Amino acid sequence: MFNKSSSSPPAPSERAPRARLAGLCAGYPGRPVLRQLTCRIPALAVTALVGPNGSGKSTLLGVLAGVIRPTSGDLDLGGERPPAFVPQRGAVADALPLTVRQAVEMGRWGERGPWRRLNRRDRLIVDAALDRLGVADLAPRQLGELSGGQRQRALIAQGLAQQSDLLLLDEPTTGLDPEARERITALLAELVADGVTVVHATHDLEAARSAEACLLLREGRLAGHGDPGRVLTASALAEVWAVAGPAGP
Ligand SMILES: Nc1ncnc2c1ncn2[C@@H]1O[C@H](COP(=O)(O)OP(=O)(O)OP(=O)(O)O)[C@@H](O)[C@H]1O
């Protein structure tokens, strides 16, 4: 009677991984950052990358996105389409004269090229992404005049319009108020239900705890990975942030 239903989904650690890292090292010219990372990123789950400033979260996203080449070790990234990468909000100039719709349409450039007109299918994909993120009514507005939460949803819609099954986001909730943070966190979980694997770097421990998996980084090394409830303990966080300095998470 109390047997687990045979239809309950397997735990993330038991699922086929979307990405496998083995002894992976990466960084910038003359600056090694990631050191010997060995872990799996579960498919169809939200994975949070957690760690102090400079611990290598964005670098790891860059490696997964294919913009930073590992210097050694292996990265096995399955999937048929390249990952979709949504950079930090600050990386997108607020002054860019772009409407929300134009920003989301840029998500189609990878397939169409920036100079080719979008076709009907592209426009339907853009409409669906705007709808999914609840920003369809903001489509004609300038990106720069939106609230932080609205802009972040527009940028996630741009990632979604790339139609990848792997969505990489750099600090999608940073700088947002609690309500907007919760909304984005809930949206990421919903995208998993749509068939997307989500990996996001975050300083928001609440968001990290609500993820199905996490990677805890300390000075470019893996200090823990797996179930956030097991990895993000008070003692592990105190230890990781003590190494990083007194600023705290
Ligand atoms: N383009 C770059 N060239 C050289 N070094 C870089 C570059 N980008 C980042 N670094 C360095 O790599 C290290 C890791 O940076 P990274 O941005 O990956 O950390 P992070 O965990 O994402 O930090 P934060 O939480 O502040 O965003 C830092 O020491 C940083 O100074």
TrEMBL record:
DNA damage: is it a keyword of this entry? no
User: Which residue range or ranges hold the ABC transporter domain?
Assistant: 19-244
Q: Which UniProt keywords apply?
A: ATP-binding, Nucleotide-binding, Transport
- Molecular-function annotations in GO: ATP binding
Q: Matching SMART domains, A to Z?
A: AAA
Pfam families for this protein: ABC_tran (PF00005)
Family the UniProt entry places it in: Belongs to the ABC transporter superfamily.
What this protein is called in its record is: Zinc ABC transporter ATP-binding protein AztA
The organism of origin for this protein: Streptomyces hyderabadensis
